[in-house]
Automatic annotation (TrEMBL):
InterPro entries listed in its UniProt record: Cyt_P450 (IPR001128), Cyt_P450_B (IPR002397), Cyt_P450_sf (IPR036396)
Segments forming a coiled coil: none
Lineage: Bacteria, Bacillati, Actinomycetota, Actinomycetes, Kitasatosporales
Pfam families per UniProt: p450
Organism for this UniProt entry: Streptomyces abikoensis
Name used for this protein in its record: Cytochrome P450
Length: 410
């Protein structure tokens, strides 16, 4: 039962589709006509031996699937919809060791431990260091007069936040930033990085993090790593587990936040009345609307663990189910004028951080803090920032990314 309303061969996870625009009109079509729709992928995909997936497009259904991990597994297939062709087996296996790709009870155990690093108190403890960073990043950009907002401003703070969080010493940061960026970039054909480079960077990052964990396990300090790896009653992470946790942070917390910041800037520059409002009032609702508007993670996927149903549609065991957060965040059943960028939107029950189940974004308050700090610094230091060209979009199966955003800082 493929959906006749979509153009023949249309696939929401096609990087060429997402490189042009997030397919909002196509999502709207499905939300109205067939909210859980079979999308054929007749040629198969590297890493999957099936021939399509179910696209879930309504807010209510995305939420429901997210909260039924016993029916919709994160472990059967990794969460990311489309592997890079030629992706190596080791890399797919490495993905499985990240909590994003685990089910309860393994997931529950790891989540309970790492949660300690993300309590409101732990996030607040990073605030003053990150505010200072944000100020410095923006001040340095101003010196250039004009440039690319993505590389000048959006890239840096998310990496600094993760480094701060796990206590990476200053002199090691350039190294871990380089590995993180290479892992991300290997997906990008323009950079022509090979699978080899991507895997090697991931392995080097894991090895670095394992060393960090081993050092803290031997000599605990008063930092997060020590609290995660030092033996405690509730259990702790092994240094290998910690390595994969850091790998996941470098992926989950880095490019997502970078794209939220870049899209947020682009939204402000194309909605000048919102930028004026922001500079005047700095509404506390701003960061959540930026995440809804941008929806940096277009989708993650699950796999049906047995024959089941979702939103009245029967789903066979083993079938992949794509949870389209980007579609949920434009569902008119939930959002008034979903097409409007409105930084005072309240309430804003968006699913940009996931549908609220066990995998609900661990870093959401950190991400919101980073967004707040960057835009506060931009508003203070670069109030007249202007667009100087059309953004260049990322080619990706699942990320809504901006690669380049030319601006004038004066
Ligand atoms: C999970 C989005 C920032 C760490 C997720 C999920 C989404 C998401 C959609 C999956 C939720 C699900 O499957 O139900 C985002 C967005 C961000 C962001 C849009 C930025 C605007 C961050 C940051 C960190 C982080 C800054 C940490 C430094 C994680 C982790 C998970 C996760 C560890 C996996 C949690 C689990 O499996 O239990 N995020 N994220 N994220 N995110 Fe974020």
């Amino acid at each position: 039962s493929s959906c006749p309303a979509l153009p023949e061969g249309f696939d929401f996870t096609d990087p060429d589709v997402n490189a042009r625009r997030v397919p909002l009109p196509e999502f709207a079509l499905l939300r109205r006509s067939a909210p859980v729709s079979w999308i054929p992928q007749p040629h198969g995909l590297a890493g999957f031996d099936d021939d399509g997936y179910w696209a879930v497009t309504r807010h209510a259904d995305v939420k429901e699937a997210s909260t039924r991990p016993e029916d919709f597994s994160s472990a059967r297939n990794t969460s990311v919809i489309r592997f890079h062709p030629g992706m190596r087996r080791e890399r797919i296996d490495a993905q499985r060791l990240m909590m994003l790709n685990m089910d309860p009870p393994e997931h529950t155990r790891v989540r309970r431990i790492v949660q300690r690093g993300f309590t409101p108190r732990a996030v607040r403890a990073l605030e003053s260091a990150l505010r200072e960073r944000a100020g410095r990043i923006v001040a340095a950009a101003r010196e250039h007069g004009s440039g690319d907002f993505v590389t000048d401003i959006a890239c840096e703070l998310p990496l600094q936040a993760i480094a701060e969080l796990i206590g990476v010493p200053q002199h090691d940061r350039a190294k871990i930033f380089d590995w993180s960026n290479r892992m991300i970039a290997y997906d990008d054909p323009e950079l022509a990085l090979t699978e080899e480079t991507g895997s090697r960077s991931a392995m080097e990052l894991i090895a670095y993090a394992m060393d960090l964990a081993a050092a803290r396990a031997a000599h605990p300090a008063r930092d997060i790593v020590s609290r995660l790896v030092a033996a405690e009653d509730e259990g702790s992470l092994g240094s290998d587990e910690f390595g994969f946790f850091v790998l996941m942070l470098a992926v989950a917390g880095n490019e997502t936040t970078r794209n939220a910041i870049s899209h947020g800037m682009h939204a402000f520059l194309t909605h000048p009345e919102q930028w004026e409002l922001y500079k005047r009032e700095r509404p506390a609702t701003t960061a959540e609307e930026i995440v809804r508007w941008a929806t940096p993670v277009i989708s993650f996927q699950r796999t049906a663990t047995h024959d089941t149903e979702l939103g009245g549609t029967a789903i066979r065991e083993g079938r992949r189910v794509g949870l389209f957060y980007a579609s949920a965040n434009h569902d008119p059943e939930v959002f008034d004028a979903p097409e409007a960028f409105d930084i005072t939107r309240d309430p804003n029950p968006h699913l940009g951080f996931g549908g609220g189940g066990p995998h609900f974004c661990l870093g959401r308050s950190l991400a919101a803090l980073e967004i707040d700090l960057i835009f506060a610094a931009v508003a203070d230091t670069l109030p007249g920032i202007r667009l100087a060209g059309a953004p260049r979009r990322l080619r990706s199966a699942w990320l809504n990314g901006i690669k380049e955003l030319r601006v004038s800082y004066e």
